[in-house]
Specification:
There is one protein chain. The protein is mostly beta strands. It is built from four helices and nine strands. A hairpin with a 3-residue loop joins strand 5 and strand 6. The longest helix is centred in the N-terminal third of the chain and has 12 residues.
């Protein structure tokens, strides 16, 4: 299929493992490859491929986030990627997740996910993914506590950037031993007539569901 570039399916079924990997290295290699001069005489790829089974890593580093003890089933096809039963440790907690990516024309992709997060430090999570999950009213320094959640979701990405208007989430969320500090929507409660709540700029709680 591959060597003779025939219109067949190349199938790979196996176990893959690495020690420690920093995504910055992968990103650099991808950028270097994208700037290479394409061979105008190269024959278009006729074969398709399907790669499946298991992937393990001692650790994966993505910008400031460090994921340890990574273990996942996976499926890779053209324009279609799945990580299933993805287990990892991060942010003083653990998670079991599933992710499906569908590549679309015009540099768009659909990202579907299921996440079961157990006792992660919510401030550390938000700091590591500040670029993606913070917005004007809620930043990492505004939220404290231990996060657990079972959440399903979908988001569209355009040129690898999230289209936030497309975001859909459904699930249960718990923060234990936490605090909301200077969160504007919470502080606005003080203005509701008859409620009588004060000092909502610093809201401490044992459990928030």
């Amino acid at each position: 299929a591959a060597l003779q570039n025939q219109a067949k399916e190349l199938r790979v079924h196996g176990n893959f493992s690495i020690d420690d990997l920093d995504y910055a290295i992968v990103e650099k290699l991808m950028q270097e490859d994208s700037t290479a001069t394409p061979d105008s005489d190269a024959e278009p790829m006729k074969f398709t491929y399907k790669i499946t089974r298991n992937f393990k890593a001692n650790s994966l580093k993505y910008e400031d986030a460090l994921f340890k003890n990574v273990n996942s089933k996976f499926l890779v096809k053209e324009n279609y990627y799945v990580l299933d039963s993805l287990k990892l440790s991060a942010f003083d907690g653990s998670a079991v997740s599933s992710i499906k990516v569908e590549m679309l024309p015009n540099d768009e992709m659909n990202l579907f996910f299921k996440a079961n997060i157990n006792k992660m430090d919510v401030t550390k999570v938000m700091k590591s993914f500040r670029e993606y999950i913070e917005y004007e009213d809620i930043k990492a320094e505004n939220v404290q506590g231990i996060l657990s959640t079972k959440m399903d979701g979908k988001i569209v990405l355009k040129n690898y950037e999230p289209v936030y208007e497309s975001l859909m989430l459904n699930g249960d969320l718990t923060i234990e031993n936490g605090a909301l500090i200077n969160v504007k929507p919470v502080m606005e409660i003080e203005k509701i007539p008859g409620v009588g709540l004060k000092n909502m700029d610093k809201l401490y709680f044992s459990t928030l569901n």
